[in-house]
Amino acid sequence: MSIIENKFLDIDALRAVFVQQLTILYNAKISLTGCLPELVEQATFGNLKAALTEDLEDTKRQMTSLQAIFNLMQESWLTDKCLGTNAVISEAFNQVSFNQNEHFQSDMSILVYMSAIENMQVGASKILNLMA
User: Fold this and answer.
1) Can you tell me the distance from the alpha carbon of 45 to that of 22, in angstroms, rounded to the nearest whole number?
2) Could you tell me which InterPro entries the record lists for this protein (predicted)?
């Protein structure tokens, strides 16, 4: 096994990685804002509806903050290179199917997938914060 020399990432490379990952996070939030209203309608448990509504509003505020960061950096936040993250979100929402006779299962599926998506966003945000 060979030892690779420890090299430092130059500022331009770090900026490029930061913008790329920030763009993926932003585009994930675009996907979420498209899906959350439907989940609010599908949810039957009152507290779940309230939590999803709150998450939608939080996501919109976060998007505004991310747009401000992009503007300060003079970068674009729109890209078609976020297929992986969008696929995870799309898969999660496609798995949640509302069935009036099985609303408990539907609500629980919403909780499971929203938890997974939240964990993905929190993890990405922590790494971006460290990079910043």
Assistant:
1) 33
2) DUF892_YciF-like (IPR010287), Ferritin-like (IPR012347), Ferritin-like_SF (IPR009078)
